[in-house]
Amino acid sequence: MARKPMEWPAGIEPVGDKLRIRFTWAGSRRCETLPYPQTPKGIAAAVAIRDQVAQLKKLNLLSEDKYAELFPNSSYAVASLKPTFTEYAQLWIDSRQIVDATRRNYCSILNNVWVPHLGSKRIDMISAADLRKVAAAISWASPSHRKNSTVLLASIFRSAVADELTGRNPAASIPRSKVPRRPVDPFTREEADRIIAWLYANLAGPLRMYAAYFEFAFYTGLRPCEQLALKRSEVKEVERRAHICRLVSDGNIEERIKTKYTREVLLNERALHALGVAKQLHDGEFVFAPVDGSGPYIRSENTPKHYFQLALAALKIRARRQYDARHTYATMCLMAGMNPAFIAGQLGHSVQMLLTTYAKWLSSASDWTELNKL
């Protein structure tokens, strides 16, 4: 009687005196010969390897390195392996000349958004469809979160294209979220003067430093991070100007400013008055020092923020950000009819940015003048 042919487990087949497993990975069919004999024990070992491959694929953990570990004698050219998304993203970040805060932000986006979905995939095997699927599955915290994440991803893939690791940028097809601009919400000049007067009237002794701080903020338009880092040596009171060249970021002094270009800010009488008050209270390296003596400079805008909020509450003025002191200075200058190029220089903006941001106030200041030209 003829012997019944042996039934092999799914994906397992004999080849010579060894066993071979079949599976699909990275869009192609693979066959890998294993060093196991055609015995029950060998067959069980082959089944275990194939099941492991299936599980790794399901968890998106079958990377090129893992593949080489499972099949060290594979006929597929290991030398031509390209990096995974995680490997290339790390290389990309390491090669950037960026400040620590930006680096931490990039790492946070990658670790929390993209690496969980793309980490083990080869950089050249990621398609636009893959990215759209991932983007659709993520619960984005906000439109700006989605926009910043996709912009970062597109930058990484642009570099991969330039490095000839992939032939196209799959992130280019992901639609960018439209992020509404935060509305400019300045104080009126009358409100600004009331806030400053309340601070001087109600903050006694060393705390008057914060009254001077906000008078300077309202009448120079400095960004809070720039004002915190202003050194006395960079203020020329006789020439009535201050050199803006550094900022505070995450509590640390950094020798840079947001727009990359240092600038000279001309000082009006109110700004000079604030400098005089601050100097009477503290004549150290930095213009505005913490009143508790915790360091040479104020490390966070949250320190003066408390007193700012007290003033708004006491005066029943609608709550707004400290940053709106900067917007207040810009709109006061525009309403006074100053040259937009001069104002842009004071703020560290381009003229185009100034006109875009403050168009409403620019128009309001000149509407009747323009009409009278008829």
CATH topology of the largest domain: hpI Integrase, Chain A
CATH architecture of the largest domain: Orthogonal Bundle
Q: Work out the count of structural domains.
A: 3
Question: Percentage of helical residues?
Answer: 40-55%
What is the first-to-last residue Cα distance? 114 Å
Radius of gyration: 32 Å
Would you identify the CATH H-level superfamily of the largest domain? Intergrase catalytic core
Q: Mind describing the biggest β-sheet?
A: 3 strands, antiparallel
Point out poorly predicted stretches. none
N-to-C order of helices and strands: EEEHHHHHHHHHEEEEEHHHHHH
CATH class of the largest domain reads Mainly Alpha
Largest sheet strand order: 1-2-3
Structural class: mainly alpha
Give the gist of this structure.
With 374 residues, the chain is mostly helical.
Describe this structure in words.
The protein has a 3-stranded antiparallel sheet, covered by helices on one side. It has a 3-stranded antiparallel sheet with strand order 4-5-8. The chain has a two-stranded antiparallel sheet with strand order 6-7. The radius of gyration is 32 Å and the shape is elongated. It has 3 domains: 12-81, no CATH class; 85-173, Orthogonal Bundle (DNA polymerase, domain 1); 189-319, Intergrase catalytic core (hpI Integrase, Chain A). Helix 3 runs antiparallel to helix 4 and helix 7 packs across helix 11. The chain has helices spanning 40-58, 64-70, 85-94, 100-118, 128-137, 143-162, 189-202, 208-218, 224-228, 269-281, 302-315, 324-335, 340-347, 351-357, 359-371; strands spanning 12-15, 18-25, 28-37, 235-236, 241-244, 247-249, 252-254, 263-266. The protein has 15 helices and 8 strands. The relative contact order is 0.07. The longest helix has 20 residues, at 143-162. It has 374 residues and is mainly α. The N and C termini lie far apart (114 Å). Pfam families: Arm-DNA-bind_2, Phage_int_M, Phage_integrase.
